[in-house]
Amino acid sequence: MERCFPNAGTALHHETPFQLLIATILSAQCTDRRVNQVTPVLFQYAATPETLRAADLGHIETIIHSTGFYRAKAKNIVGCARGIVERFHGKVPDTIEELTLLPGVGRKTANVVLGVAFGQPAVVVDTHVRRVAQRLKWSRANDPDKIETDLCRLMPKSQWTAGSSRLLLHGRHTCTARAPHCVGCVLFDLCPVEEKKRAARLKRGEPKTPQPLDIVEGVIDSL
Questions:
Q1: What does CATH list as the number for 121-223?
Q2: Residue ranges per domain, the chain?
Q3: How much of the chain exceeds pLDDT 70, in percent?
Q4: Measured on CA atoms in the order 29, 34, 39, 42, is the torsion positive or negative?
Q5: Which tens digit of pLDDT belongs to each residue from 44-99?
Q6: Cβ atoms of residues 104 and 80 within 8 Å
Q7: Which CATH superfamily is domain 17-117 in?
């Protein structure tokens, strides 16, 4: 997967950890492309915790309207900015425990900030990562926090950030929800669908494929 996505990372445009945090909150149920269209206007109006916490809520709602759930998001990003100023002296905290104290910030958002802005090992579990992990049987959980734990066990800590980013991109572009592009998929030999095909070939007396499922460790190491 490293060959397919050599520069895995966030597509959200930002210049500071705070801007990344706000953009990630806005990206919930919204495309990165749409968020990148909105944030330049937002950050021209209020680009720091100090300016955003004092911003007019109605004007913020107007700016971010196209991202969806704009009322809740406006309330969260203003509350988040206020929390950063009042709790953390205007600086975005760099621990998951502190980040998740802020309005609108769950583990997924916190891990994006930790991994991208602060360079810490962090596994981001969004809908794409969850789908890929479940299809490959790397996790049988539905809860994102439990899936995060399962992936942390599978991947070397040094690969948590890049690995989960590549899984996200793989789910977005290849292992899609409705029509996965199995032909040419770099993880196809690890997929249970392929396992069933192997079993059918063996029943017909055909030779076993030379790529067994135990290559999962090698693939994980290279995520």
A1: 1.10.1670.10
A2: 17-117, 121-223
A3: 82
A4: negative
A5: 999 999 999 999 999 999 999 999 999 999 999 999 999 999 999 999 999 999 99
A6: yes
A7: Hypothetical protein; domain 2 (1.10.340.30)
